[in-house]
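Ticket #234: bound-state structure for uracil.
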Amino acid sequence: MFYKNKKQNDIINLELLKSYEIGYTFSNKPIKRIEIKPEVESKTELLKNLSYKISKIENCELKSSASKLVFSDGDPTSPLMIVGEGPGQKEDEIGKPFVGEAGLLLNKMFKAINIGREKIYITNVVNYRPPNNRKPEPSEITKYAFFLREHISIIDPKILILMGSTAMESLFGTKIKISKERGIWKELIVNNKTYLTMITFHPAYLLRQPDQKKYSWADLKETRRKINELNLKI
Ligand code: URA
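RESOLUTION: The complex was predicted; output attached.
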């Protein structure tokens, strides 16, 4: 093609460069002229996108009755990711998981194995408070499992702790019993990657059944042992 003048030619070249999705910088000095857009989005951006996707969920009773989305808390770079069931009243007010009574126990449990709450990453199976704190319905668990799996994939933890039967069912199905499965290292495959996973009792259950704390303590000690064995920095 023949261009009548240079200015028109430059505009066309700029359009061409834009279509390649690369930035081109004009300068007289010797500089790095072409910057390729990074292929991998940062974890923060991926988490922001996931949270936005969840906020757009439709036809969800949980979302329509809750006051806000409760996405996560803690360190997204942590090797340890905790999954609970769903927000309660306090979590719904504050917008963070495990900030009520069960959360206080969770903090104590991890402190007992020398891990501060701020060092772990915490989320839930469902991200909106179920009405009257009811257990999420199987259809809700399935709906949110899609987001939870993406969440695990983004955080990419070295150890995943599932607290309670809802977290267990969301990722391993309904055919198993928590009393039989807790305290054992299991493998969970998400997005072609295998995650070392421990199922243990939910802190709210331990508040109702304090005699079960001895099992929970055994699971925590085993978690600490594994952290040491894998030499995880936490
Ligand atoms: N119970 C949960 O499972 N998650 C919370 O965030 C609070 C209580």
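RESOLUTION NOTES: The mean pLDDT is 90.
TICKET STATUS: resolved
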